[in-house]
Every structure is written in structure tokens, then in C-alpha cells.
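Predict the structure of VOC family protein.
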Amino acid sequence: MASRLTEISLDCHDPDRLADFWTGVLGWEVLHHEPGLVEIGPGGRDDAELLEAVRSGPVSPTIFLAQVPEEKVAKNRVHFDVSPVDCSQDDEVERILALGATRADIGQSGDESWVVLADPEGNEFCVLRSLAPEHFSL
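Done. Here is the predicted structure for VOC family protein.
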């Protein structure tokens, strides 16, 4: 038996603000909220159903946004990659920028197939090529 990746934790100053941003980007919802800690993820499953799914195979991990006092000081060592599924990469980048992201320069050459953005607290992530049928085929 193997372990399952079930949660990803992201330290931040304002968990509520980042929850709003990331639920907007991913189409997820807030699953749990308490002062200083917000869990977001795909909704629609009760605890027993989710437990059975985790035991039987990989599922999408949730994201815990935990309030911490420290500032972000350097480029992330781990980051998220997102892929648009129903629009072009350019359209998705514009949508995510409108949600509060900013463009990030982490030393790209300009020839990359991905776009580097940062969430409202400066955490870098990449928007990869579109997986929408009109933009991607096998």
C-alpha cells in the first residue's frame, strides 16, 4: 500500500483572501473555515464517500491556507501548475489576472510554453497550455 497525497498546505497572511482567489481559479469551494485556517477543494462529497475514494485511488488533494506571521522571502520551491480546460491559455491568463493575480518574472527566457503568475500574496504558479478540445488534441 502507498500513501496518498491528500492535502497541500500553503502559509499565508490572509487565508480568506487566498481562498477567494484560489476557489475562483480552480472552481473549488471552501470545505472548512476557522480563524487563521481555510481548507479549499472540490466539493460534493461527504466524509465517508471521500474516505472511500482516497482508500481506493488518487483523488485531488485539498489546499490548506494557514495564517503565519512571516513574510514570503524568495521564489517558491514548490508551485502550482494549472491548465485551462475550456478556453485558450491567453484567455485563462486574463481571467486569472482579473481575479487578482500578477505577472511574475522568475528568470523566464520568453520562449516558455507556460505563463508565470503570482497569487495575491506573491506565490508563483504557472498557467500551462490549454487542454480545451479546440486547443489540444492527442
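The chain has two domains: 7-67, 80-127.
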